[in-house]
Amino acid sequence: MNPVIKRVTERIIERSAATRTEYLARMTAAHNDGPARHTMSCSNIAHAIASSSEIEKDTLKGHAAANIGIVTAYNDMLSAHQPFERFPDLIRTAATSQGATAQVAGGVPAMCDGVTQGQDGMDLSLFSRDVIAMSTAVALSHNMFDAALCLGVCDKIVPGLLIGALAFGHLPVAFVPAGPMVSGLSNKEKAVVREEYAAGRVGRSELLASESAAYHAPGTCTFYGTANSNQMLMEFMGLQLPGGSFVNPGTELRDQLTAEAVRAILRITDLGDEYTPLAHVVSEKTVVNGIVGLLATGGSTNHTLHLVAMARAAGVIIDWDDFAELSAAVPLLARVYPNGQADVNHFHAAGGLGYTIAQLLDGGLLHQDVKTILGDGLDRFCVEPHVNGGFGWKPAQTESLDTDILRPVTDPFDSEGGLRVVDGDIGRAVVKVSAVSKEHYTITAPARVFGTQAEFTKAFNDGELEQDLVAVLPWQGPCANGMPELHKLTPYLGVLQNRGFKVALLTDGRMSGASGKVLAAIQVTPEAADGGAIGKIRDGDMITICSTSGALSVADADAVLQRELPAMDISGNHAGMGRELFATFRKNVSGAETGGSIFARD
Description:
Structural class: alpha/beta
Number of helices: 23
Shape: globular
Helix content: 25-40%
Strand content: 5-15%
Radius of gyration: 24 Å
Largest sheet: 8 strands, mixed
Distance between the termini: 34 Å
């Protein structure tokens, strides 16, 4: 085992001793109580099975067959979740063939950051994760189930499902993905059109045509953002069938994987001899494996929030120093857009997650001794599914089929994972450098402070930003407005950088998995609305962001820190598009480093 991986894991185990012990004790008590349908009143049971077929009613009245609760994020507006419409029937059919039953326990909301990007609804995005967690708990609270299958893909949905499911960690739980859409317009071409639009050289019709050619069919978006990082995590954490993350919707293999998920979860209920509850799968070592996978593949910075929140739900306490220390030891094995030109379909074809896990295990960078939904040992995930002559597994590729996309651990793209923490007078922030050229790793430039993305865009269009600058957007944290992503800035900052200016972004908001070639210090904590120094920065203050030394500072810091926070009126961010309903969330949300969660307020 790599000594850094070993040291960080031991530190997490020690730090989490009390919370992990308490969590496991709660899950043991829940397991000892067993599914309540065995002791429910006749009226309770009758309500729960009233809509079932007669065969299902007979099965559910007994005690010998398992009942699977399905928690689904289906809706038909989101391309990533539209394929889930068929999944409950597939799951019920597979369960029936095994003498079991399955019921849709409940649905959870699934919003799309691609739809709400730059819109008022984006202020609900991060908070939707905790709503999904609570919705998952409501779904499973009927206590009719021996196991659960979670159907979700995108940014906040998978983290929310897992947080909610961990409250029912005495149950076996597996995640069932829908897969990415087939490749459309390349990410490189799409990015060029976006920058051309920002520069005013093409119009809206050309931009819409480009976007529609990129996002064009059922399935997940094909760039390596948070949604596809979620899928990677579920495999690395042993919660999703191996090789299934990036199998396209509507294929025979996709349907067979869904049926196999049913068979896998039925094998590990407490009605048999291989009982493996979710609480035992998600451990300190599992969480470290997830972080390693994120770093080795250049995944989404959103998981410096989500993984923290998911781990806490299992009693495991991690922080950004853990990410940074692991990042220095974990090599970058994949180049997938925005860290390269390939999409996840190309990554999957080059060798995919089975190859990547095998390489990291060989390099001593992953914990092999973990529990998974397939049994003990992460090496069970060094395989690929196939349907030649019936569904089965074959060993993962031993060599990458495209070393421009995926490389062995002995010849990585970079010796580090590219996720760093910067710290100083302004606070702490996350920087993702895996897509940033080394000449842009460091900047010292005057601040230009903006209250909104629209203010920045107007200044750009008015020609006011033709200079070196650090664009500062405070008052974008979870307490202020729910911590929206700020992707509308990306093409404009890219244009300025292409023109030869030194530019960077500094914000207490998010940028997520689509963070690109411009240096960005994001998720600054403490945030402005919590008294953070980022709210005291003024135009012209000289800002230094150095991802090499880890510095985040402002010149003449003593004078800057003595300033009063401005009397900012952010009430306009608190009403409309349902935002008025989330006042309690804004008042009780934790800081970015503790997950931006209402369940973890210090």
